[in-house]
Amino acid sequence: MPIAQNLNRRALLKMAGGLGAALLTGCDQLTQDQTVRRILGAANPVDQTVQRALGPNALAAEFDEADLSPKFRPNGSTDPDNAAYQAAAGQGFSDWRLNVTGLVGRPAQFSLADLRALPSRTQITRHDCVEGWSCIGKWSGTRLSALLEKTDLKPTARYIVFHCADALPSGDFSPPVPYYESIDLNDAWHEQTILAYEMNGQDLPVAHGAPLRLRVERQLGYKHAKYVMAIEAVESFANIGGGNGSYWADNGYSWYAGI
Amino acid sequence: MPQPSPKLLIRRHSAVTRVTHWVNALCLAVLLMSGLQIFNAHPALYWGNISTFDNPLALIGPFPGWATLPSYQDLASGRLWHFFFAWLLVINGAVYLLASLVSRHLSRDLLPTRAELAHVGQAIREHIRLRFPQGEEARRYNVLQQLAYLAVIVVLVPLVIVTGLCMSPRLNADFQWLPALFGGRQSARTVHFLAASGLLAFFIVHVAMVLASGFWNNLRSMITGRYAIETGDGHADRAKS
Question: In terms of CA atoms, which chain B residue is nearest residue A43?
């Protein structure tokens, strides 16, 4: 303690400042360490297990027309820079087809009219962006379960992958990579999981993912893939994209976005 | 240790209190800084269920790099830190609460008696003059300590945890009443921010009081458990405390 008494206030402040700066740099290095990231990321599957155990078949809250957001913010891609997509959009997606492939007994292509003829669902739900904001919108679309029944999903399938028309950056100097997303069967068979072709009673706008966007209401906004062009049933997503199951999971975000 | 006045080393804090105190301090520091990182992804607060972008409740920040974890903008990494240490905070808090209920630490040391509550006004006046209980009176937490610690343990930390759970879309489905408790998810986010601000305010006052009432003695008591009190007439030799 005598040593302590000799320390004057300025030295203490200096020490605290130096310690603070060292801590900040140290924390940034820890953040970039792959082992640390793996340990921190280990919380995510725990969240998934606990959250699902607490309400295996829970429905996301549904709202009234009066609750609709006057301005629903579009996020991520808002107009894919993709010639084939732009051509399809120019024709109102009349020649557009959704490809269903992979571990299904009857691979098939669906026009928008085909999709509209399948069992549908309309829901007014809150969209929670990973950034922190929320908007309420009304979505109508084909139940994913109906599509999986129609194409006869095989028992070996564990994930449904959504391949999209948009591309996003993959690091500072690389060309953009195609956006993709995946969900497991827990969400795929869920009553509120739909492929929306309408938003707020109108054809889905381009900014919100025309002609088709996934709604997986019990997860954050980034799971709700826009511009869905093809659906692939797989046993593992190890060989798709960066191998983590989605564009955002390949870029450091958690695959499970229920939190 | 040459001391001019006789001092008595008492056992101030149990091992559980000491260990959970420092784990809690680490958790709150990481959660606050990673929380500011997450907040910076959309530095605005709203009331109700949705974000009224043109009419926010408050526009705050963005917070500078020295206050966030990591120091550069990286929402994905902020979330990694936040959700790992949130579990640690909850587990650590549960250990503390259970042990403190069993050992009666909560009822014996933290719950103020009627007589202690009657002296709140006097205690505030003495704290403002930086006069702290000495001698026999320093064996127990004073009433302001009791109230401040209880506010953290039974109000602020539970509130920050519950409002944090309201941010999860899956938990919102599992328990639809959860965000409704606070008037909607965006209200819950605002209350989460306010509760975290309350914890920061507590931290600032807590550290100031630790410094003012005998830094090394307080620090030692939270490390080894031993706390020195004056013996004899109970008058303070404050220069040495």
Answer: B84
